[in-house]
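Our platform keeps sequence and structure together, in a single record for each protein. Because each token names a local backbone shape, the row as a whole describes the fold. One such record is reproduced below, unchanged from the form in which we store it:
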Amino acid sequence: MSKNYDFSGWATKNDLRCSDGRIIRKDAFKDNDGRKVPLIWNHDHTSPSSVIGHAMLQNRDEGVYAWCSFNNSRSAEDAREAVMHGDIDRLSIYANHLRQSGSDVLHGMIREVSLVHAGANPGARIDNVIEHMDGFEDECIISTGEYIELYHADGGKPEKDEDDDKEEKKEDKEVKKDDEKTVQDVIDSMNEEQKTVMYALVGQALEEAGNNEAKHSEEEEDEDMKHNLFEGAEEQGAVLSHSDIEDIFKSAREHGSLKRAVEDAIIQHGITVPQGEVIDDYLFPEAKNLNVPPEFIKREDSWVSKVMNGTHHTPFSRIRSMFADITADEARARGYVKGNQKVEEVFSLLKRETTPQTVYKLQKMDRDDVIDITSFDVVAWLKGEMRMMLNEEIARAVLVGDGRNALSTDKIKEDNIRPIWTDDPLFTINKVVTLASSATDNEKGKAYIKAALKARKDYKGSGNPTFFTTEDILTDMLLIEDLNGRRIYESITSLATAMRVKEIITVPVMENLTRTVSGATRNLIGLIVNLNDYNIGADKGGAVTTFEDFDINFNKYEYLIETRCSGALTKPYSAIALEAVFQ
């Protein structure tokens, strides 16, 4: 029998130690000498178009040599061009029925030769499907570092090419029975619609089986091999006739479930999966998480970093502020009239002291959960959440207080971390806007801006302050229209310029906050403050610290994060609290 071949190369080399410690010994694939096997593109078993030709195998002293020929399919033409151009120059094989003694592979059957994007390092490498004891059968992919050789139409031929037909006919007789067909025969006899459904079903179903039939790649170690579920059925004696395939689709139409129809066919024909696996895991794999680790459902928290980074920090926590009020008339300089007695200056001396309080967050987690969760680092994820929530709680306490009842044992005391909103009038200027209950959003927005601008004359804080408010209040101001119905402020930046503030920051925890003063309910609009005038102090031992412990009685890990700090405005009239009263 005479044929021409397009290229050749080493399918596998002998006496080379593989990555798992195995060594392919001489004549391990001796039974494959002269055998014709499919030529596949990149070990893709999910589509007939991946079969791009065939390879004739030749057993040699150095290993197994492959003489390869392309067919006339479109995929083969693309592969031929890549090979002839030198873009693809590596071969790989898929083999099963391996037998070994210790680490020495003594026998195996090569089922295919594949063109692959990248070979292994010089030599051969085996990626095992499953771990097994000596003498058991196995399957693997072997890839060499040798380059393939190209041939023209009059190129070389394998020495034992003439025995090919006899060998193939002999194998066909051993596998086929009178009225039975192999899986490949059935697939070849199917029409395009049936093939589409079958390959979609089986190919997609085996997405997760790749870890058990791993394909070697030098640079991409995580690629999965997608072998056909029915591969190897010939050796097991399990075959599907054309009528069997039709019965599967008929059952699917009758019961409305392709899953049930395939499961019934699998049971009937004795097709199995590796021990310990579930057939549904192959055919209908579980959904995969898109967000690992889990994503937090939380409030928008960009404002937290603005507060924590904007405040002034000191390495001590006990803060005393002293001020002398020289705004009264008694503190003014006086004119002297000869003969009159001079009057001494009189002014008030004001002082206050702020002491620290411990703020903490405690979490517990069962040790079994820590061990069982392997898809991500659950401890690191938990600690990240704890630090995030600790920062948010301190930032909230700085602006408006923690909102807990004064009698709550968990409350952050307002004498320790003093909220800007409710601070002493010496430090926070209270500007109340009186509005009718029927006021429109346009009227509210204008009133808020006017009040902020009028309050600025009393502001004595540092530099240009920031306006902290809510999304609703900001929207009311941005939507203010002139008499022609056009928006006055086109952006937040233009609004901030009009309000004489550096920037406007929205704070979700400020929404719907109220307090009662002299029987009137005041609704918080926002705070105007330069946070550099607010001091957060913590002693050396009171900085943010994390602790871990294990409760042996309850088998739980305990994680604690805490800080001991104080906080207060340190400059008189350094903040403005805008509030609305509706009548």
Summary: The chain has three domains: 7-171, 176-283, 301-583. The longest strand covers residues 556-569.
